[in-house]
Every structure is written in C-alpha cells, then in structure tokens.
Sequence to fold (396 residues):
Amino acid sequence: MVNIAILGFGTVGSGVAEVIEENRERIAGSAGEEICVKYIVDIRDMPDSPFASRLIRDFSVVESDPEVSVVVETIGGTRAALEFTRRALSAGKSVVTSNKELVAAHGLELLAIAKEKNVNYLFEASVGGGIPIISPITQCLTANEIDEVYGILNGTTNYILTRMIAEGCPFDEVLREAQRLGYAEADPTADVEGYDAARKICILADLCFGKNVDPEAIRVEGISGISLTDVDCAGGLGYKIKLLGRAYRLPDGRVTAYVAPHLISDKYLISRVDGVMNGIVVHGNALGECLFYGAGAGKRPTASAVVADVIDAVKHRQRRRTIGWEPADGNALADARDMATFWYVRCAGSPDVRALNPRRTLERGGERVYLTGSLTARELDAALGPADVRAKFRIL
Ligand code: HSE
Fold:
C-alpha cells in the first residue's frame, strides 16, 4: 500500500480524495498497489467531512512521515504551496499538483529539486483540467519538433462567453454561476483578465519549446473588452470570439507567447469549443495538427488528471519521469506586438484605410468594422491614428 497526503482540501483536493475512494480498486489495479490518503492538510475545520479523521493542520507531520511517498498539492497560489512543495520534494517525496500558477512561476526550480532528489514533480492537471495534454506533449509527441501550440485554456471565461452569447446572460450572473460550479479561481480576476490562461500557455510553451517562458513577461489581455456588439458583428462575418493562449516558435528560434481574444472562423473545430470545455491545438512537424478537447475546469475532471499523476508517481518511484525545460536568456522571447496578424477593428472616425489594407469592410451605425490585412500591433495602431477605436481583436 502507498500512503499519500493531500495539501489543501478545496474544490480540487476534495475531488481527489473522492475519486481515490470511489475508484479504489480500479486505481489499485493501475498503480499495482492500493493508494491510501493518510493525511489531508488544511487550516480549516471540517467536522462534517467524511475525511475529517484524516485532517491535520501541520505540514511537518507529512514532511517527516517516511510512510508518505506522494504529496498532492492543491492549495493554489505561490506562498504556502511553494514552501510545502520545496520541502516535500527535498524530503524525497514526489509531488503532484494542479497549481498552474506555481508551475508557471517556479516549475524550473521545483523540477530541479525533483531531479536532484530522484522523485517526480507532475502537473497534468495544471493545464486543460481533465484533458490529457502534458503527458501527450512530453511522451506521445516527443518525435516532433513542435512549432505552435494554442488553445482555449480557461474554462471560466469560455463558460461566461458562451452563456452571454447564447442566452444573453449578464456577465456578473454567469461569473457567479461559474464560481458556484467550482470553475473560477479564488480571485476570478485571474480568469477574467487572462492571467490564468497566461500561466497555462507558458507551461505549454516551456514543454513544447524547451525554454522557460515567464508569465510576467508575456502580453495578456482578458475578456473584459469583448462587447455583445462585437460578438454580433463577428457572428455576422462567420466568426466566434474566444480567449486564446498562443505560443509559437519563430524561424530564428525565439518564442512568442501571449493571451488575447481572437476571432476564429466557424470553419475551425476549435470555434465550437463551448462552455467550460477547453480545446488545445498542437502543431508538430511530423504529426501536423492535433486538437485536444475536454472539460477544462471543475472538481472531478481536474481530480481525474491529478489522480492519474498520483498513479504515475507511484509507478515511477524507482525511475523518475524526465520532464523539464531550460532557463531562457533575455533574448529568447519575442514580443507578440511585433508579430504580424490579421485584425478585426471596430472604430469611428478616419483611420488610414490604405494602411489597414482591409479584406472586408462593414458599415454599422456610425461605425466601421474592418477585417485588416496582415499587420503588427504597432503598424495597426499607426494606421488607426486618430480614429476612435471601439474594439480590436486578432483573427486566428
Ligand atoms: N479557473 C480555471 C479555469 C480552473 O476556469 O479554467 C482550471 O484551471
């Protein structure tokens, strides 16, 4: 039997305990031995929880217990989670996490400790909720040079956009519903303003391109600038508006990564990824394009990915999984504003239409909508000049 500890008994942590209980036999079959939750560390009292007898407050009990070989970190954030992860790895325990903020900001350091101690630091649940994406990238697709990865990486914002568009529900109401369903972060600003998606695209870029991409260094725009007017205009032109995280490798070897709303042609499969679902496209030189689709947030889908990593950690106790990436030098990241792309622009006034080089133009009330030629963000801003810009989004 293998003993594990769960740190943080919120939405994901409680889901992990439940899935381990519910699928006990199946999990024992996969892992080769029974997996038992010995401790749950949380500072809150939960006398009514069926797991109350295993709740403790002091992480050092876990740290010093040689019977615990795998620690599940579902605390979130980078304070206690970072300290406990460092200590657990240093104590020779594998750590499994859903904490994208921690992996994106400190993955390099934590993977180095795991390597030194010959244990695993696994984070399948940190991107795409229940969708298998980290293992496919680090195992099934390793024969490829991956040149691009992008996707709908935040379930909360996709849920909000989908319900606003389909039912005309007000933003605040849908956000409350996303919180009730356990999709949103403790502070949903991270969802709405794109920071959660930024952490996830950085993790994917780290793995796909092998160099650390700092989430603080990339351009991030959330969904607060999307109005129903633009949803309507985009729909009339055959596009959906979705929040995408995107990263690709340039011919000179640099990587660009960013998060921003995009217009996506309804001919693309990913334009139909709705609700809490996430969709992630990976492009490899042998594979071509592959779309990973599934539940991107929520208690049980996320727990499904965490528990799979626990099983993997148990199976690889003697042989560490080789996951990792290198530190990046100062010139490795290219600014997304310097990358040319097609744009949707809605404005009033007089932009330099020749410079916009539009493929399509629409009149709408006193405004014009342009689908521009290929321009960098700087070229676009110069062409828009004194025009009163109401919205501008990239087109995939
Ligand atoms: N708040 C996140 C989301 C949770 O909505 O996608 C899953 O990482």
Remarks:
- The pocket of L-homoserine is lined by residues 129, 154-156, 183-185, 191, 196, 296-297 (CB under 6 Å).
